[in-house]
C-alpha cells in the first residue's frame, strides 16, 4: 500500500465534510482541485481516475485525491453508492511512498525552553486502500452533526474531530506492521526492559529469559524503535528519572538509586549528557511550570 507523507506542524486544515448516496448512472465530473479530496466509500463502488490512473473504490475503501491533479469519474456507478468526502488544505508539498518505507521508529527531538521552531515531523495518510468502517463512520457522523449547527464556539471542536479522523487513518497504516513477528518480538523486549529498569542491562540474560536469539531480538527492537536494547533501557531510565524529578520530593541520590545507578556522580553525568542539563537544573526548571 502507498501512503502520502505530509510535513507537520501545522496540521492540515479542514475545509468541509459531506455525505451523499449516488444512484445508478451518476458519474463524477472532471476537474483540477487545489485542495485534498478524501473519498470514502461505505457501500457500492465509485470509479475515479486521477491523472489517468483508474481506481475502483469499493465499500470499505478510500482514495486520497491530491491538489493540482486532474480527476474524473471514468465510469458511472452501477449500483447505489454511499460516499463520504472530506476536503482539506495543506500547503507543504506531499510525497508518496510505500508504507513499508515509513520510518515509524524515528525519534523526534525533545523540545526545550530555547526552541523557536518545532522539530521535523510527518503525518502519513493512505493514498488508496481499506479502512475500518465502524470506527471511521462514527467520527465522520460526529463531524456532520456538528457541521449542521457549527458556531464559533465549537469551531475548535470541529478541527479536533478532523484531527481524530487523521489519527484513525494513520493508525490503520501502522496496524500493518503490528501483526509482524518482528513487532511482537520488539514488544516483548520493551516489556522486559521496563520490568527490569532498575537492574543493570545484560543482553545474554535477557535473550535467555525471553528465549530469543540475542542479535535477532536486538534487530527487531531497532527496527521498531530505532534503538538498541541497551539504548532503550537507558532511555527508560532517563524518562523515569524525569518523572521522579518533576512529581516527587525524593532527593537526587534516592532517584539515582531507584532507577538503578549506585554511583550518584555517574547518574548526574549521564543525565546531563542525555537531557542537556543536570538533574537539579531540570527539577528547578520544571518547578516553574507546576
Automatic annotation (TrEMBL):
PROSITE patterns registered for this protein in UniProt: HTH_ARAC_FAMILY_1 (PS00041), HTH_ARAC_FAMILY_2 (PS01124)
Record carries keyword Transmembrane helix: no
Domain HTH araC/xylS-type, residue spans: 187-285
Keyword Plastid: no
Superkingdom of this protein's organism: Bacteria
Name of the protein this chain belongs to: Helix-turn-helix transcriptional regulator
GO molecular function, one term: DNA-binding transcription factor activity
SUPFAM superfamilies in alphabetical order: Homeodomain-like, Regulatory protein AraC
Residues passing through the membrane, by range: none
Organism: Paenibacillus lemnae
UniProt entry keywords in alphabetical sequence: DNA-binding, Transcription, Transcription regulation
Amino acid at each position: 500500500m502507498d501512503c502520502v507523507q505530509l510535513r507537520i506542524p501545522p496540521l492540515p486544515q479542514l475545509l468541509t465534510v459531506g455525505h451523499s448516496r449516488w444512484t445508478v448512472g451518476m458519474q463524477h465530473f472532471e476537474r483540477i482541485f487545489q485542495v485534498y479530496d478524501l473519498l470514502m466509500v461505505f457501500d457500492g463502488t465509485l470509479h475515479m481516475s486521477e491523472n489517468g490512473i483508474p481506481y475502483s473504490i469499493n465499500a470499505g475503501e478510500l482514495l486520497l485525491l491530491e491538489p493540482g491533479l486532474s480527476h474524473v469519474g471514468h465510469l458511472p456507478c452501477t449500483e447505489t453508492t454511499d460516499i463520504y468526502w472530506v476536503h482539506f488544505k495543506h500547503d507543504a508539498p506531499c510525497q508518496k511512498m510505500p508504507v513499508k518505507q515509513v520510518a515509524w521508529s524515528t525519534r523526534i527531538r525533545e523540545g526545550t525552553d530555547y526552541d523557536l521552531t518545532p522539530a521535523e515531523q510527518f503525518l502519513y495518510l493512505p493514498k488508496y486502500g481499506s479502512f475500518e468502517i465502524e470506527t471511521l463512520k462514527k467520527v465522520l457522523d460526529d463531524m456532520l452533526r456538528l457541521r449542521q449547527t457549527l458556531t464559533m464556539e465549537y469551531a475548535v471542536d470541529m478541527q479536533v474531530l478532523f484531527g481524530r479522523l487523521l489519527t484513525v487513518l494513520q493508525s490503520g497504516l501502522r496496524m500493518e506492521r503490528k501483526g509482524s513477528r518482528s513487532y511482537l518480538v520488539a514488544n516483548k523486549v520493551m516489556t522486559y526492559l521496563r520490568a527490569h529498569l532498575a537492574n543493570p542491562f545484560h543482553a545474554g540474560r535477557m535473550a535467555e529469559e525471553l528465549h530469543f536469539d540475542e542479535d535477532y531480538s536486538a534487530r527487531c527492537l531497532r527496527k521498531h524503535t530505532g534503538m538498541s536494547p541497551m539504548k532503550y533501557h537507558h532511555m527508560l531510565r532517563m524518562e523515569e528519572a524525569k518523572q521522579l524529578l518533576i512529581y516527587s520530593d525524593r532527593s537526587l541520590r534516592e532517584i539515582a538509586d531507584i532507577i538503578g545507578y549506585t554511583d550518584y556522580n555517574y547518574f548526574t553525568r549521564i543525565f546531563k549528557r542525555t537531557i542537556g542539563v543536570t538533574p537539579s537544573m531540570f527539577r528547578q526548571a520544571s518547578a516553574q511550570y507546576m
